[in-house]
Design brief:
The chain has about 180 residues and is an alpha/beta fold. It contains six helices and eleven strands. α1 packs parallel to α5.
């Protein structure tokens, strides 16, 4: 079974986090949510999520992917975590999946994994992704990197992750079952 970490920081975008968690779990992917240094994290719109663990307690797990929800100040808070930046670098080095939506691609820039890669983000964050080849597509896939524009693309983003990790058939089945256009 594939294993994914979804780190959450204060001010995360709830739709992006919950949609990713839900769709990945429906696909049979093990999803570990991790607070940077707390067990309960409050999103940008005051939704509280109790995480599965703290980031420091799962750093030695063998994750197949890291998925970063955006939102502000959530993405900025993720970017400040040296533990998370190192985890992203390690997963990328072993060609694991790196995925970020909304403002979260700025974390990937800080981790140094966007250089010469095609990526997108919420409008206005392109200036903080100087090493990337910026695209305005809703969801962009560049080898082991998936990025998306924002909350309105959350389901599409999560389905691309499912497609990458467990295959197109599973992604299509979920899309049909959930009536996603």
């Amino acid at each position: 079974m594939k294993m994914v970490i979804i780190p959450l920081a204060e001010g995360f975008e709830e739709i992006e986090a919950v949609t990713s968690i839900d769709i990945l779990r429906r696909a049979g992917i093990e999803v570990i949510t991790a607070g940077l240094d707390v067990d309960t994290v409050i999103g940008a719109h005051n939704l509280e999520i109790t995480t599965d663990s703290k980031l420091k307690d799962v750093l030695d797990y063998n994750f197949d992917a890291v998925v970063l929800p955006g939102g502000m100040p959530g993405a900025a808070n993720l970017r400040e975590s040296s533990e998370l930046l190192n985890l992203i670098k390690n997963i990328n080095a072993k060609k694991g999946l790196i995925a970020a939506i909304c403002a979260a691609p700025i974390v990937l820039e800080a981790a140094g994994v966007l250089k010469d890669r095609e990526a997108t983000s919420y409008p206005g964050y392109d200036s903080e992704m100087e090493s990337a080849n910026y695209s305005e597509e809703r969801v962009v896939v560049d080898r082991n990197l998936i990025t998306a524009r924002g909350a309105g693309a959350a389901a599409e983003f999560a389905l691309e992750i499912v497609k990458y990790l467990v295959g197109e058939d599973e992604a299509f089945s979920l899309k049909e079952a959930m009536f996603i256009e």
